[in-house]
What does this fold into?
Amino acid sequence: MQLMRERELLELLLFKLDEQQMLLATGRNRWIRHAVNEIERVLAAMPTAALSRDSLVVAVADEWGAPDARTLRELIDAAPTEAWREVLTGHLTTMLALAEEIDQMKQVNEQRLRTAIRVTQETIAGLGVPTGEYTPSGDVARDVDARLLDTRM
It folds into this structure.
């Protein structure tokens, strides 16, 4: 059950990254902040799921008489039957595939986000209108070519 919960979290993370990618691809930047918040919520749940899995692996390994097994791979090696090895290997294989897919999706999204930032910065720079800087009370502190965005990459 715990392994299924962790798989579901990985699938949900992949789904949220896919949503983010679609928003970026279609230029619907208005919703990016919400997509990022949802991704962060899923990521926040993952350490707890991993800790629960680790605790379960240790408990099952003790029950199977393999107290040195601390990872899912080691638990697979210590499994008392072929059926357990098959079930656990299926979970491990699926989770590794999901992790690889998540990594690829994350890299594409990061590149698209960098591109969106660069385009936004170029647009602001091309306006030719100084943005100025303001004090907390709203007074103009400096009326020069200050930028709200860092134009360096």
Observations:
- Helices lie at 2-26, 32-63, 72-78, 82-127.
